Amino acid sequence: MNFLDQPRQVWVTAFAAVIAFMGIGLVDPILLSIAEGLHATPSQVTLLFSSYLGVQVLAMLFTGAASARFGAKRTLVVGLALIVAATLLCALAGTIGQLVGLRAVWGLGNAFFIATALSVIVGAATGGQKGAILLYEAALGLGLSVGPLLGALLGSVSWRAPFLGTAVLMLIAFVLCSVFLDADRPTHRVGLLDPLKALRHPGLLRTALGSALYTAAFFAVLAWSPFVLRWSAVGIGLVFFGWGACVAVSSVWLAPRFADLLGERRATIVAVLAFAALMLVMAVPDKALLVVAVIVSGLVSGLLNTLFTSTAMSVSPAPRPVASAGYNFLRWLGGAAAATFVSHLAQPFVVAAVCCVLAACLLAIGREEDAPVTDEAVLVGEELVG
Known about the structure:
mainly alpha, 16 helices, 386 residues
């Protein structure tokens, strides 16, 4: 696949996705600064992840219905508008409670954007579904790498500056999507419960649950590492920039080769067990070892992000927006749970390792229903929904 040979709306959506995904790691380098500036405890500060992800998870159930009723472009634009408003108000927050509440609004906007963006890219990209997913995961990796760096650089001025900077970037994405995305007419109706019904498919359910367990470990790294390191915003930002860069490189270049070598399911099992091993390394009380493990974990995360998403989008005959919404609902639910409880655990990284082992077990019991579904079968599913 030639990554440069894509329709305009694919690149516009991918750019907006980079900015949207920046929001996940943006607060990572400034967690300590926010705690000091707003006199908050670690458990209060980690709520910035859990409120963001918790609302995003619940709203994921409505994204398919919204996209079907109002069209993908309108759904994307509304999501971006909510993010712009939330990030701007985050910069003005006076208490940790206000900041947590505004992060929830941010998560709502992200929900309408993320799942819809995936289906837009998959539907419009040249090179087939696998190439489109690589683009989507590349946007995720790039956003995850740039977010912490932006948060660190602007956070060295004030913890409010990263939110203001993100608001400006999201406004640019909002304008680009409003102007350059093609208006679309939905061709089928999607019910509010369709994403949950799609999870009745054994293959999709196992994939989504496995991804939720892995994502819980993923967010244990994001939410807890800064409190273990206790470095400056710039120091933590550089660590997570290296981590995010590894995510981007691995998701695009390593994941397809790994899948071709071992097969998609077997590659995912090997990668998630490797992530479990890295979690145990992070549990060792050594900051230098933690930094190395965090950065290396980015390579494994890149593999898993692409492998899980690729499987989820092809394992069932459900329409792609519906499968995406159901999958992302469980995927990010794991992240929300981890962000909420990580500060209350005695050994967060050990628990994360256990989650990864459980994910590997779920994937290992897969049966014939987990075989990839052809594009023709997906189209038949869309016609049946209609």
